[in-house]
Amino acid sequence: MIEVRGLRKSFGGTPAVDGVSFTARDGEITGLLGPNGAGKTTTLRMLYTLMRPDAGSITVDGRDTQSEALAVRRTIGVLPDARGLYKRLTARENIEYFAGLQGLTPGVARTRAAALIATLGMQELAGRRTEGFSQGERLKTAIARALVHGPQNVVLDEPTNGLDVMATRSLREFLRGLRDAGRCVLLSTHLMQEVAALCDRIVIIAHGRVVADGTPDELRARAHEQSLEEAFMTLIGAAADAGDAA
Amino acid sequence: MRTALLVFMKECRESLRDRRVLVNSLLVGPLIGPLLFLVLMRLVVGRELEKADQPLAVVVIGAERAPQLVAALRQMGLEPRPALADPELAVREQRIDLALRIAADFGADWRAGRPAQVELIYDSSRREAAADIERLRGMLDSYSHRNGALRLLARGLAPAIDTPLVIATRDAATPQARGALLFAMLPYMLVLTIFIGGLWLAIDSTAGERERQSLEPLLINPVPRDRILLGKLMATAAFSTASLTLGLLAFLAVAHFMPTEELGMSLALGPHFIAVALPLLAPLALLICIAQILIAAFARSVREAQTYLGLAQLVPVIPSIVLSLLPVKAQLWMYAVPLLGQQLALMRLLRAEPVPPIALALSAIATLLAGVAVFAVTRRVYDSERLAIAA
To answer: What confidence tier does B46 reach under pLDDT thresholds 50, 70, 90?
Structure first.
C-alpha cells in the first residue's frame, strides 16, 4: 500500500507538484491520470526515492520513503519513464544484474528471472542481446528487471507508451494478474482509454494538484457525464478555472 | 562490497563486448605511444646518422689554389661543389648551407710558411646547418694541425711545443642520460595510455548511462550510490591499468627497434623498468580514472563528456613541459605532487638511476590521498538529485 500526503516539489520556484495526496491500495490498480506536465512523473520519482519532496510525506507499506529509502526500494518494483537496457547484455543478463543489485543470490536470481521470462512469454528473447529489440520486447525486459525481486508494490510510469495494440493488451493482462495476486499497482498515464480499461481507482492530477479521486463510476457521477472522457475534460477544465481564479 | 563487485563485473562484461572499448583501451591506448616514438626516433635519429655518413657537399671557391688541401678534405668526406659567383648571397637566400673560399694568395702564403687564409661562409642563425659547419671546421682544424706538426718536425722541433694546452672533453652525461633526453616525453606517453585506457568507461559510467536512459533504473535499486560509483571506478581502473601494462610491454618490445645503439646511448627499458613503473603508475591510474568519472558526471551528454575529457587530456603534459623548460633539481617534496612525482621517478628510471624508496612511497601515498579526495567529491555529485534525471 502506498500513501501520499500533501506532497510538494518545485523546480526553480515553479511548483511541479503542489499538495498531492492519494492512496493506492493492495489488490487494486490505481491510475494516476493527467495531461502532460501535470506532475505525474515528479510525483512518482519522489515515490521511488529518486527525488526528495519539499514538503509532505510518502509511506510504502508503512515505511517512510525519506527516512527508510533503501528499505522502501526493496518493496517496490519500478518501471520509470527512463527504461534503457544494457544493449550489449542479453535480456536475461539485464534481469539478473538487477536481481543481484536487489540482493538476491545468483541461484535465486536465475530462478526468478526464468519464472518472469516464462510469465512474460519472452523465452525466445532471453538469450539475445537487447540491441535491436522492439519497443514491446524492451518493455518486457524492463518489466521483468523491475519485478525480479517480487515486490509487493509495482509502480509504472506511462507503461504503454509506444506499444502496439497487441503488446498493450498483453501488458494489461499481466498487470491484472499482479492485482489478482494482491499486489498494489500504481501507474501513471495521460491516456483515457488506459484507465478506463484497466484501473479500479483513478486519481486525476492537473497543475500539480489532485482534482478528483475515485472509482470510474464515481468520477462519471461527480462530473454528471456519461463517458469517462467527458468527465475527465470537465474535471480538468474545472481545475484550470479554479487555478485562474486563484 | 558485493554490490561494487557486481557493478564491476557487469561493467567489465559489457565493455569486453564493445569493440570500440577494446580498440581504444587495449589497442590504440597501449600502442599509440610506442609507435609514435619509434617513428619519431627513426625519423630524427635516422637523419642524423645519415648526415654523418654522407659526404659533406660544400661549394668551394678557388679550389685550384689549394689542390692539396682540397684533396685532404676530400679524403675526410668532403665533396667539393663548383664555385658560385656570389656565395654570401646564396647562403643568405638559403640556396646553400655553407661555402668555403680559398683566398687568392693562399698558395703564396702557404709556400712562404705564413698563415694561409680560408673563409667559411655560413648563416649562424640556421640551426640545421650547424652540424655541417662544425664538421667542416673540424676537417680544417685537423688539416691545419697536422701540417703545423709536420713543419715543426721539419725544423727539428717537437710538435708538442705547439700545444701548450690540451683540452680533454668528457661529457658527464652517461649514455643513458643522453637517451633520456630524447625520451623526456615518454612519461607523458605512459600517462596518455592510462588516460585513453579508462576514457570510454569513464564516459559511459555516468553520461553514457544517462543518455541511454539506464541510469535512473539503476539508481532505483536498493544500494547506496557510492557502491555503484566504486564498482564503476574499479572497472575503469582495471581497463586503464590493462592499457598501461600493455603499453609498457609495447615500449619494451619497441625498444629493440630503436636506433639507440647507433647513437651510443642506452635506455633502461627493461623488465626492471616495468617492475618499478607499474606500481609507481597504478595509484596515478586510480586518480586519473576517478577524475575522469567526475568530469564526465558533469557533462549532460556523451559528446559533452568527450569534449571535456579531451581538454583534460592536456593537463598531464604540464609537468613534462615545465620539466623540460625549467630543468629543476628533484626535491623530495616534488614526489608528493601527483603527475610531477611520477614524471620525475620515470625519468630517473630511464636513466638507470636508482629512485629512493621514500620518494616512491611518498608519490604513492600522496597520489592515493588525492584519489580519495576526488572520490569524495564525485560521491557528492553522485548523491545529488539531478544526477539521474536526463536533461
So the answer is: low
Rounded to an integer, the average pLDDT of B267-281 is: 85
Q: Which residues pair with B135 in a beta bridge?
A: none
What's the gap in Å between the CA of A233 and the closest CA on chain B?
31
Q: What is the pLDDT of residue B169?
A: 60
How far is it, in rounded angstroms, from Cα B271 to Cα A162?
59
DSSP for B224-266, written as a single string: -HHHHHHHHHHHHHHHHHHHHHHHHHHHHHHHTTSTTTTTT--
pLDDT digit string, tens, across residues B181-194? 556 778 888 888 99
Check CB contact under 8 Å for A101 and B17: no
Question: Can you give the residue ranges of every domain in chain B?
Answer: 2-45+176-387, 58-169
Total count of domains within chain A: 1
In degrees, rounded to 5, the angle at the alpha carbon of residue A145 between the alpha carbons of residues A141 and A150 is 130
Q: Is the pLDDT of residue B16 over 70?
A: yes
Tens of pLDDT, residues B241-263: 999 999 999 888 887 776 666 55
Q: In CATH, what class is B58-169?
A: alpha beta
Q: CA–CA distance from B268 to each of B31, B342, B344 (Å)?
A: 19, 16, 15
Q: What is the pLDDT of residues B79-114, one digit of tens each?
A: 888 888 888 888 888 888 888 998 888 888 888 888
CATH number at residue A78: 3.40.50.300
Name the residue facing A88 among B17, B213, B215 (closest C-beta): B17
Which residues does chain A have within 8 Å of residue B389's beta carbon, measured at their own beta carbons?
45, 50
Question: What is the DSSP code string of A131-175?
Answer: TT--HHHHHHHHHHHHHTT--SEEEEESTTTT--HHHHHHHHHHH
Residue A183: which residues within 8 A CB-CB, separation 6 or more? A26, A27, A151, A152, A153, A154
Can you list the residues of chain A whose pLDDT is less than 70? 238-246
For B221, the closest of A51, A86, A102 (CB atoms) is A102
The residue among B18, B22, B221 with the most chain A CBs within 10 A of its CB, best to mutate, is B221
Residue A13 domain-assigned?
Answer: yes
Nearest CB neighbour to B217, from listed A80, A88, A89: A80
pLDDT tens track for B126-174: 777 777 888 888 888 888 888 888 888 888 888 787 777 777 665 555 5
Which residue in A has a C-alpha nearest to residue B13's C-alpha? A89
In angstroms, the separation between the Cα of residue B51 and the nearest Cα of chain A is 55
Please give the residue range of the domain that contains residue A88: 2-22+38-213
Domain contains A138: yes
Q: Is residue A236 domain-resident? A: no
**Does residue A177 sit within a domain?**
yes
Nearest CA in chain B to A46: B385
What average pLDDT does the structure give for chain B?
Answer: 85
Contact list in B for residue A82 (CB cut-off 8 A) is 213-217, 388, 390
Across the range B280-301, mean pLDDT stands at: 93
Q: CA-to-CA distance for A134 and B193, rounded, in angstroms?
A: 39
Q: So what's the pLDDT on residue A113?
A: 95
Contact A88 B14 (CB under 8 A): yes
Whether residue A145 and residue B10 make contact (CB cut-off 8 A), yes or no, is no
Q: What is the pTM of this model?
A: 0.80
Q: Which of B185, B184, B188, B176 is nearest to B353 (CA)?
A: B176
ipTM associated with this complex: 0.92
Give the pLDDT of residue B292. 95
In degrees and rounded to multiples of 5, residue A213 shows phi and psi of -155, 120
